[in-house]
Amino acid sequence: MTEAQFIPQPYTKSVEQGKVTWESPSNIALVKYWGKKEHQIPENPSISFTLNNCKTITTLTYTKKDNSNEFDFEVYLDGEKKDDFKPKIETFFNRVEQYLSFLKDYKFVVETQNTFPHSSGIASSASGMSALALCLMSIEKQLNSEKFSDEYFNQKASFLARLGSGSACRSIEGDLIVWGKNNIVEGSSDLFGVKYPYGVHENFKEYQDTILLVDKGEKQVSSTVGHNLMYGHPYAQNRFAQAHENLEKLKAILESGDLDKFIEIIESEALTLHAMMMTSMPYFILMKPNTLEIINKIWAFREATGLHIGFTLDAGANVHVLYPKQESEQIMEFIKSELVGYCQNEQYICDQIGFGANQIE
Ligand code: 2P0
Description:
MVD-like_N, binds ligand 2P0, 4-stranded antiparallel beta sheet, Alpha-Beta Plaits, alpha+beta, Diphosphomevalonate decarboxylase
């Protein structure tokens, strides 16, 4: 697959107006994407669990307009006009225009809402950009008399979402998605996410993710700044190589169901991501004291009980506590009694592995 395959043929149908709604989930990387080349091409492969409950729901209303000189759109979050979202969408439209030739023919209204608290420190770019990409694909589908296969629809939606925000390309489908060309997963691509094609042990079915909201503030380091820190970073090349190695190890673990080894990889990936930020120039510490308190408590509880509780982190202070469904009763009890006190306003979100986006009729 190359980019050229996503450039549409001239549209055969004309549509005056319409409305389409998609809900799309967030995802949490197990092997992290950190560092990119031009055009949203990742420096290394990543693999993620698609989430189930943390979602963005986006309705796109489109009305044909007289001229096709420029983009014309408005954005609403929870019913309120959000002009500060416009530059990101404008950038996205510019990047995808050659793949969606109708973009300047319509006036769009984007109405969006998240199922998770707005400033929770949970990235809404993955769910938000994937939901918008899917809405645009639904319009493109209507403009073609020829039917798209589901595979093409999802692949192009992921391709477009990636141009909005890299990690968004992993939110179209579930339950495990790989993005970034590598020799370990057949069919992997830098251009879009693909469903993990190999056997996955029962242990990972319905895997749980309880997200502890340690710091709900604005992101201290934007993803653009963050990825740029990997340019000229003294450890970058080793880190990129390590991501391939960890993906290979994870493949064997996903098949065997070895939860101890699983935890070893995901925790190492999380701490490596943060180590990259601590050792870049400029340098950042994105963990908070309570992030470390939680990590130490998790380690002590795991040591004492032998339960398979582990964590991962995004580029922020919140902790994703990951554990198998069959141990959830005891682990949830521990989370509520020992960890929730470290969260801002005791807030946390219970989520689990999910299966991707859905169109809402
Ligand atoms: C990931 N993160 O794999 C990594 C781990 C955060 C930490 O992808 O610039 O918002 O939009 O392509 O996808 C966050 O970066 O970056 C991210 P852009 P994105 O999930």
